[in-house]
Amino acid sequence: MNILILGGTGFLGPHTVNAAVARKHTVTLFNRGKTNPGLFPDLEKILGDRKDPQAIKQLAGRKFDAVVDTSGYYPRHVKMTAELLAPNVKQYVFVSTISVYADNSRPNADETAPVGTLPDPNVEDLRGAAFMQAYGPLKAYCEQAAETAMPGRVANIRPGLIVGPDDPTDRFTYWPARLDRGGEVLCPAPASTPIQYIDARDLAEFIVTTIENGHVGVYNAVGPRHEHTIGDLVHACRAATTSDAKLTWVDTAFVLEQGIQPWMELPVWVPADGDSAGFATVNRDKAVSVGLKFRPLAETIRDTLAWSRTRPADHRWGAGLAADKEKRVLEAWHSRAQSSTQPS
Fold first, then answer.
1. Domains recognised in the chain with CATH numbers
2. Cβ distance 220 to 286 under 8 Å?
């Protein structure tokens, strides 16, 4: 099959290219040529900015069996691209996010759950916190733009946290690397808090499977197949190393009191209560029924750690708890515990 990928050289993109090529598909890339430009020298590359109406005209008249959009964040851009390609493309696969859902308090939400909205759906060029706040609803509007342009021919794939080798965010890599470093490791209690993630390579394989089988509609692409907890992740990371790591489980209330941010400072983990009670329990049955598969957690950890070890020692981490802050909070935790056992 002939596949066009919008993007293709960041994190998920290369894994998708590799999966498609390994399964004997022909791949063309359309991107700005700024991120990892040396990747895939044997593939056709069309240089252009998808936000530029003149640039995307290079795609006019080109016929593809499917287009994979890994780089759509604003609905106007998705609308522009999908409308241009609609006459000559059989299927549009849009990589969205489970962040589209308006309510994270309800466990086991499936693809029919309501999505978020914005006062102005046409807002663009957001930065920082403003972008993150609007990210989910904007992705929902992107889904709708693609479906409007190509009704009945769109697969909207909603992954959760995408992890694995080459992840630039460090939102999973922190844990294998932290356990590998050894010493006392601050872990958020209870260990039974659920987590969800998907290896980028599994997501890439699912994208290609979706194209090969012509699946359309909405799919929650989250894993693993069965419920995992932060305890499962931390212990699996510990088993993957030979370090002297010692786990110290600190109550959620104390973690928050110390100003530690869930998700960014203690990655993957969000307390399973209140507005976040259903955050890590999104239903993935529909995607599994049409071919989504998951590799073992141990394999993801092993490969992510091996990749992480190749990075420079002065790599600036995008997520994770700073060593000095971890030490300070652990000292405060132990001091509190000792004080509570002193006779009055």
1. 2-159 (3.40.50.720), 174-195+229-277+299-337 (no CATH)
2. yes
